[in-house]
Specification:
Layout (H helix, E strand, L loop, with lengths): L8 H8 L2 H25 L3 H4 L4 E6 L5 E4 L4 H4 L2 H11 L11 E4 L11 E10 L2 E11 L28 E5 L2 E2 L1 H9 L4 H29 L1 H24 L4 E9 L9 E10 L2 E5 L15 H15 L14 E4 L18 H18 L13 E8 L6 E8 L27 H7 L2 E8 L15 E7 L3 E7 L20 E6 L2 E5 L2 E8 L3 E5 L14 H10 L5
Parallel strand pairs: 10-11
Antiparallel strand pairs: 1-2, 1-5, 3-4, 3-6, 4-5, 6-7, 8-9, 9-10, 12-13, 12-16, 14-15, 15-20, 16-19, 17-18, 17-20
Helix pairs in contact: 1-8, 2-7, 2-8, 6-7, 7-8, 9-10
Length: 558
């Protein structure tokens, strides 16, 4: 939950800081986070990290409050401070974090998100005093479990999803715990990949630590901490200013998750956003009970989605750090799909996490109808394929995350097939995938007519297809928006939902949105079609010239 700031903090800051110093330190802290990000990008091994960029880096102050971050994954960055707080409160107190330590967890019920995401924190000291914490979160390609990539759609307990690491010192006083690292490698289908990516994660935090020590040497630890305090205070003031722009009231919206992969029942997310002056209460009471399948969110994950939606409404005026969330209160009943109890499975938590974002935005659209877009595709299209290495027989894991169309904005069309909302993924080049895996890609294109009609058109989804060249493979899919499409606003139409199928001997064979270890054969063509974004406004009011450009460009067929 949001932290608090002592009443005298701002006066203390002004006594040791001037505005020029503050701006220099602000940009230096952001640069430190970006240096960590570049380190991971340049030194990582797996395509998940190096190409998809599924990782994030952040800088915390000495008390464990987020201060600055690199431009990476919103779902990671909004949740890392809650994870750190949980570790310090319930497992390893901050006073026991010593120089040279690295604290690690991946357990969603200890502050993490899901098991492939390793969250690591490195305390940084200068002259024996803790001056900050460097942090990284990396999505590792495989940590065991019932399906390749540790996305097992049939899981009904977190125990089936892979290796759980409770908060522990994986490095202590500069000495790595080789037993823990060996356990991590031993439980992965891709030990060399996960081993290399983990070393990259450790190296990045050392780079962040060096940057913080340089700042402390230049300005002193007291000035550095004062600057970190003031950056959080600025974010607090900016978020409250944005909330004051909205009319007071309670705004309600409901959206749905298609199903949990175990049953066909829809899962309801019911949200009430109350604006009162410079405060915001987000209440998810009335949402469905936690699911049998792995689409559940922990409260940490749900809070991250709420923060993401409100930060999006702030139009870039709020620096994302712990201060930005002080004005936000969250209510979510434990044991629901948005606040699951252990040992509920959570591997595909993004199915519900994206829906948290679109549900909050749907409510906020009533308060700010001229600023909030229609629903984006709203799902991380995670697909994995396991095939044996032709030389060694060891399992190889093909892993991809695809995206769809943005929702149309009141002032412009939605972007076509571009990462949006809760994640910020890049696409692995087709040529690289074909070099690493026994696949041949046959199509990668936009889907005409998939964006919702409106005065402003929703962005199109995409079609991505590949042929399996190995003898056999095990295919898993963790998708959404196949049944409940992305909504339109102000009379705009919904986007077209997604689709998953394979073609064998010229025959299309439909597959469900959640699929575990389906056997595909040599020559089968696997096809994923992602959802388009919702439209905004009455389609009759669309500019005829814009419609003609869409037709000529192939975005619409008629």
């Amino acid at each position: 939950m949001p932290d608090t700031q002592s009443p005298g903090a701002e006066s203390q800051v002004s006594s040791v800081l001037d505005p020029v110093q503050l701006e220099i330190i602000r940009n230096a802290l952001i640069a430190a986070a970006e240096e960590m990000s570049v380190t991971i990008w340049r030194t990582s091994r797996s395509t998940v990290v190096r190409e998809m960029l599924d990782y994030s880096t952040q800088v915390f102050d000495s008390q464990g409050r987020a201060v600055a971050q690199a431009a990476r994954i919103p779902v990671h960055l909004n949740s890392m401070s809650v994870c750190l707080d949980r570790i310090a409160r319930d497992f390893i107190p901050l006073d026991d974090w010593n120089e040279g330590d690295v604290i690690l967890t991946n357990d969603p019920y200890c502050g993490g998100q899901h098991l492939p995401d390793f969250v690591a924190f490195k305390p940084v000291f200068a002259d024996g005093v803790r001056i900050g914490i460097a942090a990284t979160i990396v999505h590792h390609i495989d940590v065991g479990g019932g399906a390749a990539g540790s996305y097992y759609p049939a899981a009904q307990e977190v125990y089936q999803e892979g290796l759980r690491i409770p908060p522990c010192k994986v490095v202590e006083a500069g000495k790595p715990n080789q037993a823990v690292i060996a356990i991590i490698r031993q439980n992965s289908r891709e030990p060399e990949q996960i081993g290399g990516d983990f070393q990259s994660q450790l190296a990045a935090m050392e780079i962040g630590g060096q940057a913080l020590r340089k700042l402390a040497a230049r300005y002193g630890a007291e000035v550095l901490q004062a600057a970190m305090d003031e950056l959080q205070n600025q974010s607090d003031r900016a978020m409250r200013a944005m909330l004051r722009e909205l009319p007071d009231g309670t705004y309600r919206f409901t959206d749905y998750v298609d199903d949990d992969g175990i049953t066909d029942d829809r899962l309801k997310l019911e949200c009430a956003v109350t604006i009162e002056g410079d405060r915001c209460l987000v209440d998810f009471s009335g949402s469905s009970p936690q699911a049998a399948g792995p689409v559940n969110c922990t409260l940490n994950m749900t809070a991250s989605g709420i923060y993401c939606a409100l930060a999006m409404l702030a139009d870039g005026k709020v620096m994302a750090n712990s201060g930005a969330y002080r004005a936000i209160e969250i209510v979510a009943e434990e044991g629901t799909v948005v606040s699951a109890r252990a040992p509920a499975p959570v591997a595909n938590r993004m199915a519900t996490g994206h829906r948290v974002v679109t549900t909050v935005l749907g409510a906020l659209a009533q308060a700010a109808p001229d600023r909030v877009p229609a629903a984006y595709y709203g799902v991380s299209y995670v697909q994995t394929l396991s095939t044996p290495d032709p030389a060694t027989g060891a399992p190889r894991v093909y892993f991809e995350i695809e995206i769809g169309g943005w929702g149309a904005h009141p002032e412009q069309d939605g972007a076509d097939a571009l990462s949006a909302g809760f994640h910020n993924s890049s696409s692995t080049p087709v040529e690289l995938n074909e070099a690493y895996f026994p696949l041949t890609f046959t199509e990668y294109s936009l889907i005409p007519d998939s964006g919702g009609n409106g005065k402003q058109r929703g962005g199109t989804g995409l079609r991505r297809a590949y042929r399996l060249d190995a003898q056999e493979g095990r295919l898993s899919g963790n998708f959404e928006r196949f049944k409940v499409p992305p909504y339109g606003l102000s009379g705009g139409a919904s986007g077209r939902p997604g689709r998953f199928y394979f073609v064998r001997n010229g025959q299309e064979n439909e597959l469900p949105s959640k699929l575990a270890n389906h056997i595909v054969q040599q020559g089968d063509v696997v096809v994923l079609e992602t959802a388009g974004g919702g439209g905004f406004g009455d389609p009759v009011a669309r500019d005829p010239q814009a419609a003609e450009r869409d037709r000529v460009g192939g975005y619409i067929s008629k």
